[in-house]
Amino acid sequence: MGRGFLPTQIIDYGWDIQCKNLMNSNRVQSTKADILIVDDTPENLRLLSVMLIEQGYEVRRVISGKLALDAAQVKPPDLILLDIMMPEINGYEVCQRLKANEQTREIPVIFLSVLDEALDKVKAFAVGGTDYITKPFQIEEVVARIEHQLTIQKLQKQLQEQNQQLQREIRIGKAAMIRCQQAEIAQQKLNQELEARVEERTTELQQANEDLLKLQTELRYSLAQEKELNEFKSRIISTISHEYRTPLTTIATSVGILERYRHKLSKQKQLVHFQRIHSSLKHLTSLVNDVLFLNKAELEKAKLNLTHLDLIAFCSELVEEQKLIASNRHTIKFTYKGDYSWNIWDESKLRQILTNLLSNAIKYSPEGGVINVKLICQEQGITLEIKDQGIGIPVESQARLFESFHRGSNVGSIQGIGLGLSIVKKCVELYGGQITCHSEVGVGTMFRVTLPLARAEIQDVDNLNYARGE
Q1: Which of 38, 99, 100, 227 is the most buried (most CB within 10 A)?
Q2: Helices 91-100 & 118-126 angle (0-180, nearest 10)
């Protein structure tokens, strides 16, 4: 039975004997700290007990908030691992009561919970929690968080002891000054030395407090960043593992056929397999580029890289490139209106916008379909319209049209991972522009992109004309 526990607190006598033996064997090497685990799930208690005992900690465990308060009162632990979702008294109330008690208020409390919402974590810190670990967890993470909190607690105790020592030194100094009133010069010198030491120690304490606050802020930010990154990685892994299978299978099949039967195949059939390999590799490259771009845009906060660009010539060249890719299976028409074609633009972002919208129009249009690309240039900005005669987008899919990895419910077996439109949306937002969509199933889709002119790099009209060579 753990120290400070009543007989009714024992969860499993046989298990308790095993844990006690492990604690006794570790005590020979001296335990790191006394940890109280509070969880109403016996299996969780068993798992954490064994893991922490193996790490050299002395472990006590209880299955309710009331028992936790009693155990902490009888013998305050060095640290408490506290579950939130418990009957009668939940983890938040247990923590509040601990912090309201003079004897237990300084005990660090780390919450362990399946609750993963930001509000749950904010509430945990608001009631006095020092850290928050989401289940399921890794023992390495739990041990690292425990060590971190124990280190902070140790530093705080050291600071308190140093402060007490400082106060004692101040009292001794004052007593010495009273006894040495006749030695005025020595008294002044001693007083100056003491004031300097007080100021130095105070500065050290303030710095230590600022460091602790900064560390807590960084930890909260890191937890949020870690959650966001893990969610993004999960989406990428799930999507890529699904989308890579088909092109990789095509490559493997064609390579196998060419390797074994190339001498039996005609040049035309060999060319067919080479074209399949090339097409699959191109598709894989496109997938990788889309994922890398979106990752950079979301996590590194991409910025515009503005350069001088002839917009009409640029759009014309891009349309011609897409015509070659379409291989005469579609008719692509480009028209433009207005003559304000020369200004400063981010070429790579414009390429992402136009290429992805055109690629989608080609991908989701039937063979022989007409795709119209229209550029409207005005003094305040430009408008791009890409209209196709494709399968259209269902109404229920349009609300999530620009979300990463989302695809329409009617795409069937058409290749894609749902990143193109999210990339377009990100690029448009970087410009401070807008993108709208009008679509009807079986009729076609039109995307309209409106971008304001970026004038920040050009001081006046004379500079613009000079750069044009006028």
Answers
A1: 38
A2: 20
Q: Is 407 helix (H, G, I), strand (E, B) or coil?
A: coil
For the chain (length 470 residues), average pLDDT per consecutive 10? 32 42 45 89 91 92 94 94 93 95 93 89 93 88 92 89 87 79 82 88 87 85 68 59 62 83 81 75 65 56 78 86 75 83 78 86 84 87 88 81 71 66 85 88 90 59 41
DSSP sequence for 355-378: HHHHHHHHHTS-TT-EEEEEEEE-
The sign of the dihedral angle between the CA atoms of 133, 135, 137, 142 is positive
CB burial of residue 341 (10 Å; 0-12, 13-18, 19+)? middle
Burial class, 13, CB count within 10 angstroms (exposed 0-12 / middle 13-18 / buried 19+) = exposed
> Rounded CA gap, 401 and 418, in Å?
9
State the Cα–Cα distance between residues 437 and 392, nearest whole angstrom.
Answer: 11
